[in-house]
Amino acid sequence: MRSLRMLAVLLGLGLACSDSGGPVELPGTQLHFVRQDPAAPPLYAARDSFWAKVGEGRELKLYYQGATPADRGEEFLRFEVPGDGLFRWPDGSLFQPGDSVLITVTVVDPAEFVFQFEPSGLAFRSDHPARLKVEYYHGDHDFDRDGDEDAVDSEIEQQLDLWHQAQPGGTWRATSAVQFSELDELDTNILTFSQYAVAW
Fold it and tell me: Can you give the pTM of this predicted structure?
């Protein structure tokens, strides 16, 4: 029975990742969002903001809680905007020298690795994109949610990606993030804002 279940999951992964001539795109109902492990420390903050400015590289980090609620613990998200990364405002107008914009990152659900980036529609230069890094060390590694961690979960982990949803309620698109499985980390370039998630 276990071998049949493993075969079914692996076949499903193979179909989802087959080369269709472009990035994988799925409705949210077919996407599996990675959850926080029930034993993971709580988030230090589920929302933070920073001013990105033309000509200055800046970044935002989100953390787990440390030893006390007032302490920052391990980092789990980092968002970097290079000084020459800002391109277009949400209304389509170009950024000018000295312009700055308030960027806010919100953890949509503290139990899942799903993040809202605002202002929605903000665009970055394709030759100098923003960069998103998410560490899922404290994610639930029982990815198939069958009550144990086994070979199926190891196979699923290799399929994890950072997915982007351009419009609320729309389909999700895989970003082809770089995975550092030994670090439980995914890195990807960001060209525009809305929602991002660690999923498979």
Answer: 0.85
